[in-house]
């Protein structure tokens, strides 16, 4: 029986899991019942596992022969979005938690990986090594995966390759996208407070209005991409939060603004934005007589970039199951992903799982109130996960890949030395 045929046997199981998770979504850092559900499912399946505090769940399926180890990943948190019907007004399951919904498909990721686990259990005799099932908490900006990585390093859990998928409704159900290199951009979330001098709206000459200062900063920000960043490198940015004042006749004391920058070139274009934007803010504030407080100003995050040889391997083995015509490449996304850290530490692949089906109303983008997935996509996702693991462990000649680092080194690269002390006590 093929992996696809085996995955189809567990369609009802995956749908049942996904609908439970969709009805009971939990925000980043609050996935207590979600983790309990995963724990119960792995226990029922007889899969050895550990619940990593704050991080998620690691499950272990061990093959009869010693060999390499491949890690398969799914995230499980939801978003603070009020759910509406999907594009076809035919949503089959609704959130029971007002103001919270699985608007990014993590319910399908988790259910699909549980389905892949059942496929792998049936094929366990074929495993020439071990498989780790990683259910990650807090992917939506919480950074909870740091607890999983630290747990693995402290306990000597080795990984040779990793594989993950993210649902995408721009891709039709039944198709999978595996890019050779770029998949998701790295991001830098920033927040700055401008301190001026508040006063009465009738006498602006006696005040220093931080709104005036921000307007000047924003205008200079619009030219930054053209004047400071290499045109052959990626860099997009936007302001999404702006807060100042409470009354129309009062000049506020402070203004806070925040946004994100995205890039595939964090060390060059990313750091150029980081440094130039800070100079713009400081110099403009000085000229207006204001003070800038950088509430959040980290280094640019890592981009999610596949290893080309591993991507080619994944397309080959998954294409053998689903049909070569159903596995290809797509335009890279400027959205960001915690999976970037997985690929910085281990060679592997992050792909797109087609979940678009107009007949079922699935087509809205992620983080949208009308987002929904075609539940059939989980069959193909489970098959792809299981196939990559089985076939990778069979390889005699491992594909070449670039330099990899430890998680401690990843933290240092991002200027998060304080987190090393938190996680490792160093």
Helix content: 25-40%
Form type: globular
In the CATH scheme, the class of the largest domain would be: Alpha Beta
Adjacency order of strands in the biggest sheet: 1-2-4-3-5-16-6-15
Architecture overview:
- By secondary structure, the chain is α/β, with parallel strands linked by helices.
- The chain has 2 domains: 301 residues, Aminopeptidase (3-Layer(aba) Sandwich), CATH 3.40.630.10; 111 residues, Alpha-Beta Plaits, CATH 3.30.70.360.
- It has an 8-stranded mixed sheet, with helices on both faces.
- The longest helix is centred in the middle third of the chain and has 23 residues.
Architecture blueprint of SSEs:
Elements: H1 3-9, H2 11-23, H3 32-44, E1 48-52, E2 56-62, E3 68-75, H4 106-122, E4 129-136, H5 145-154, E5 161-172, E6 176-177, E7 182-184, E8 186-195, E9 199-200, H6 210-228, E10 236-244, E11 250-251, E12 254-263, H7 266-288, E13 291-296, E14 304-305, H8 308-322, E15 327-328, H9 339-345, E16 348-356, H10 377-394, H11 407-413, H12 417-424
Parallel strand pairs: 3-4, 3-5, 5-16, 6-15
Antiparallel strand pairs: 1-2, 2-4, 6-16, 7-14, 8-12, 8-13, 9-11, 10-12
């Amino acid at each position: 029986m093929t992996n696809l045929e085996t995955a189809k046997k567990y369609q009802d199981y995956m749908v049942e899991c996904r609908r439970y998770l969709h009805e009971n979504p939990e925000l980043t850092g609050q996935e207590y019942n979600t983790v309990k559900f995963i724990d119960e499912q792995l226990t029922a399946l007889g899969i050895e596992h550990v619940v990593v505090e704050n991080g998620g769940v690691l499950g272990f399926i061990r093959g009869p022969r010693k060999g390499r180890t491949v890690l398969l990943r799914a995230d499980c948190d939801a978003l603070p979005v009020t759910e509406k019907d999907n594009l076809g007004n035919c949503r089959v399951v609704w959130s029971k938690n007002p103001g919270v919904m699985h608007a990014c498909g993590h319910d399908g990721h988790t259910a699909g990986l549980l389905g892949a686990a059942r496929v792998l259990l049936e094929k366990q005799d074929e495993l020439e090594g071990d498989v780790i099932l990683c259910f990650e908490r807090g992917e939506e900006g919480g950074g909870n995966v740091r607890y999983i990585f630290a747990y693995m390093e402290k306990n000597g859990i080795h990984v040779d390759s990793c594989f993950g998928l993210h649902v995408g409704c721009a891709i039709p159900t039944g198709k999978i996208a595996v890019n050779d290199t770029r998949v998701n951009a790295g991001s830098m979330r920033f927040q700055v407070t401008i301190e001026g001098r508040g006063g009465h709206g009738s006498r602006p000459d006696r005040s220093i209005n931080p709104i005036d200062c921000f307007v000047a900063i924003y205008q200079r920000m619009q030219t930054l991409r053209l004047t400071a960043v290499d045109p052959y490198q990626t860099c997009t940015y936007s302001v999404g939060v702006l807060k100042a004042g409470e009354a129309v006749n009062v000049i506020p004391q402070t203004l806070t603004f925040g946004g994100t920058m995205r890039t595939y070139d964090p060390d060059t274009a990313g750091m150029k934005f980081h440094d130039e934007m800070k100079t713009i803010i400081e110099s403009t504030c000085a000229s207006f007589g204001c003070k800038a407080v950088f509430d959040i100003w980290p280094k640019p995050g890592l981009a999610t970039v596949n290893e080309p040889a591993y991507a080619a391997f994944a397309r080959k083995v998954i294409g053998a199951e689903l049909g070569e015509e159903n596995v290809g490449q797509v335009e890279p996304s400027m959205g960001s992903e915690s999976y970037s850290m997985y690929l910085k530490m281990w060679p592997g692949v992050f792909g797109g799982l087609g979940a678009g089906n107009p007949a079922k109303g699935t087509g809205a983008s992620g983080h949208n109130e009308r987002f929904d997935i075609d539940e059939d996509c989980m069959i193909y996702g489970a098959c792809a996960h299981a196939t990559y693991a089985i076939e990778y462990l069979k390889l005699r000649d491992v594909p070449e890949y670039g330099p990899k680092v430890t998680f401690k080194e990843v933290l240092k690269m991002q200027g998060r030395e304080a987190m090393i002390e938190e996680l490792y006590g160093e």
